[in-house]
Amino acid sequence: MEKVQQNPHEHIRQQIQVLACYAGMDLREGARLAEEEKSRSAEMQTKLDSISTELGDEFIDGMQPLFDTRKARCFDSSWNWMRPGLLQMLAASLSILQATNDDSLEPVIKLLLELHDVCTQSLTRPPVYRELSAPTGPHVNFELDFGSDSTMTYSEVPRPDEPSFVDFVEHMRQQTAPDMPPLIHFKKQSGGSAWSYCAELSIMYYEGLSRISGGGLSFSGQTALVTGCGWGSIGADIVSGLLSGGAKVIAMTSSYSRKTTLFFEDMYRTHGARGSELIVVPFNQGSTGDIKQLVDYIYSNPGVDKGLGWDLDYVFPFAAISDIGSLATNLGSHSEFVQRVLLTNVVRLLGSIKDAKERLGYETQPSLVVLPLSPNHGNFGGDGLYGECKIGLETAFNRWKSESWQDYLSIVGAVIGWTRSTGLMSSNNLVAQDIERLGVRTFSTREMTFSILGLLYFGIRDIAYCQPILADLNGGFGAIEDIGNVVSKARISIQRKSSTLQVISRETCLEYAAMVPRGHSKTGATTDERPLAKHKHHFPAPRHYNQLQRLRHLQDMVNLDKVVVVTGYGEVSSYGNAETRWEMEAYGEFSLEGCIKIAWIMCLIKHFNGTLKTTGATYVGWVDAKTEEPIGDVEVKPHYEEYILAHTGIRLIEPEMAHGYDPNKRPLLREIQLEHDMEPFEATADEAATFKAQNGSNVDIWENTSGGSWSVKFLKGALIRVPIALQVDRLVAALVPTGWSPAIYGIPDDLAKQVDQVTCYALVATVEALVRSGITDPYELYQYFYVSQVGNTTGSVLGGTQSIQDMFKSRFLDKGLKNDVLQETFISTIQAWVSMLLMSSSGPVKPAVGACATTVLSIDTAIETIQSGKTRVMIAGSVDDFTEETTVEFANMGATSSSVEEFARGRTLSEMCRPCTSTRNGFIEGQGAGIVTLMSASAAIEFGAPIYEIIAMSGTATDKQGQSVPAPGKGVLTSAREACDNSLPLRLLNFDYRRRQLQRHLSALEALKQEELADLPTDTVELSTMRYAGEIEKSCQRQCRSLQDAWGNEFWKNDPEFSPLRGSLAVWGLTADGVVPWHIDGHVVPVVCQKWLTGHPKGPAASFMPNGVIQSLRTGLIPGNRNADNIDKELEANDYGLYLSKSIQTSGIKAGLIKSFGFGQVGDELLVVHPDYLLATLTQEQLDEYNVKLQQRSAKSERYWQDTLVGNHPFLQVKSHPPYTAGQEKSVYLNPLVRAKHDSKSGEYKF
């Protein structure tokens, strides 16, 4: 058989060779090339193996380049960062003063005025570096610590004899012995390579340090390069000092990460002075390529070449790597790399700078190079080539002359002494105290930095321009002989003390365990092994009459029917609900209770009450949703927090949370034309006919002989569409938490499948808003209000986008769909389901749509509806989803951030949305819902609903002519419109004046009422008299409310002398100055940019903002934008805005202004005021009655939350019938006085 098969194969090969020969082809050409390439590859591999063997992997891996200008971080917004610290101090001072008597005010005000004068004076002078901390010394404390193996602690303590750096300078200039130079001093080259103590230079140096410690040293307009400036290093403190002096600094880091950039961000915020700039770039000093690119970046043109265009004034090549443990007998690859970093590439860096300056003709301003030298020339031993490298750097003193560096570089050598807590010396901290007993001065990083920056004093600089100089800052280190042996002995002594204390500690613990019963603490109290979380629902606390005394002037001054308040709020966001989102926004972490709530939302845990399957034990508490293993309250956070943080907020798009959309495989159909006939496939007769109808002669169909089926064959030239998968560059979104499910809230599965996802979001957020209003059964509203007095303006930007996608895409692809998918695409359908499943209300319905400003538009519409008297309760807000279509089209518009580009710039997921920064690159799209419950103030007081905030003003505005639909306009500025003579005060803005006028008119009204009552006929029946008296009373009440409108709520309306904003504030006795405790004329107003955390969920973005303002009003805390790395220069002109990067706790917030913009020229705004201003309008009797109702609602609401968590009932309880029967329906609709009552038997509210 093999022979039979071999002959045909051989024949085929011969045929191929004949054809190849005929065609002029060499069938062996490819094989020969492959063999040659294989030989070259083997030769190259041999060379690579030889290099790897010779240099080692650490050397090769260590010199890999890191430099990337795309990852450069620039910080230059010192104009903004100088203010938050001051405001925090003012807020803290106010908090303290409010808790003390008036006697404390005078000295504090005096101090603040002095501070103000100092700040004013400093504006006329350049910024200076001054070391304001106190010198410290090493301290090791030995103590018994029961329950721990550690018996010694290291700390930095103030030096009693050096309260300031003025004293430090005095001590450093003193000689410790007659034949010894001072602890820090200067040396001069006395011939050859020898250096000797120079008293003249040293005195000049001490003089410079004294001046710096007193008046400071300015670096304004100067530039510096610093390498080796990681956390805890001398280089980091050098960068801080240069920034505080106004310098522009480029700092290099080899550990580029989010942690590193945050370190430099905070450094600049803390130390960046006026005119300073900090640029941070990844850099490997072991890479030759990085050195070349770095110098090119610094010296190249900022326009075409995108460089900095700097000429360096100072260079600090302080990058260092530890080589502890390397001896001369075992020098390895790491030691080779250390030498490259500490010596070879330092010289290479200086040479590159010299070359760049020479090439550009910078000959008149040499760069001052501070070389980091060391007294350790192998003294310690076991540190590889460290000593050799430091000695090798000293050759720069001679190169300065021999290689003609004079015109381009000045060399100052700094022999750095024992500096505690740096990367190289931190392991020796424990022995530093013993070393100082031998007369050696060890330094903190601040002390060494101060000494090094003193080398930049102008007198020292001038000398360095003429000759290299050497500053010996070793602190007497060189006076100790055999320092390595001394350190070893000190370390052995410390270890012995520690071991002795550990033995004593263990013995004591054993003795205690034998004497004290188990389960008791050392104090004798019984320990609680499993503490429980304390869930709170943050209901407003009752405010008592005396607490509102300062606002008592507001009593009876407003018409409560026309004041709209927020009584509840709810949301579905990427961080769960409103409270869990606030924890992340305000504090940056979840509390234990917050972790439990969001773990429940994500279906990670569930509450259990019964017998455990695994153990058979009775258990009540949380269990893991998958394994059903018990997990205590305090265990939830450590167990689930990492997963929760990775699957909440802004993160990579998860297909399961985005309706299956995978940005790495975005499906598309690509049209192709067949170049040959396809194989036939089987179809039904109807399907075959449709193929023929669409494709005509390009398809052939026939009935199969077997009958019942047809064959379809596409012919050459036919057009068909083939599915492909594209990778898009928008990979990140702010999706709802992974695992979010309608079922966890109690929405039945069949209902969840029927409605669009946005409806589920809206239902959940609405219930949360109702429960926060103290409403656990929506039908309770009809016990107080008529069914037409409850309305809804909930809207959306796009409505049911998943249903829209199904209706167009899925229907086009002939996928099976429900027949009523069309109804789920309507924006009005969302509120319809809310009404059908929860409310059964018959009030005004006004679904809002205003693009990304939809929520504020919804609230504005609801406010107008309440103030017009059409309703007393409104549900408002918006909801939107995230789909493939929205993210692709936003990307096509250039509105969203490119994830690929952001990753290339070194950005992490959490920092991709950076509003108000110079590096912002578009928003991050999100999804969710935000709902508020609005009531007239009179309705809220009557109902006993909590009042979270007053909506003092709402407004909308379009903008000027243009052709850009997305561009936000300035039309909302019209809320500040006014035309008045500022030379004369407007009496109507005087609250006391308006109050007097109102009292006069009310007195006149009361007199008129008495006249009307006296004129009633006395001969009529009592019933008629009572009716007429009632009519008079109603009329007087209407007129009273009109007077309150005229002198209170609406005194400013339709008067061009009062802007809506000024008038709305004046209603409550407020002005634009004073809405926050420190805000007086000229002071700043904090700007809160919430989208850094929540992303941009379109319509609900303007829902999360009012919710956040409510939480700020409640807590007095202003959340910061933790992604605000560098505020945009354009915003500096608007000097009233303050952009925070961290939260600030204030003593209270009075008001806030919310701005929202949407595509289509929709500009909206809300002015909200603290609820205390509303409560202050009530009499003591009214307030006491309201507080009773409020506490009852608080208890009911808290019970509802608790019962939901433990599974007693679902969070969302779908209604199965309206509060009236079919027979009652018409009578209820036609009787405005009919109200529902609570049926104790069924537990329901019924008419």
UniProtKB/TrEMBL annotation:
Single Gene Ontology MF annotation: 3-oxoacyl-[acyl-carrier-protein] synthase activity
Major enzyme class: transferase
Assigned EC number: 2.3.1.86
Domain named Ketosynthase family 3 (KS3): residues: 678-1170
SUPFAM superfamilies reported for this sequence: NAD(P)-binding Rossmann-fold domains (SSF51735), Thiolase-like (SSF53901)
Keywords assigned: Acyltransferase, Transferase
One Pfam entry name: FAS_I_H
Protein name, entry field: Fatty acid synthase alpha subunit Lsd1
Gene name as annotated: fas2_5
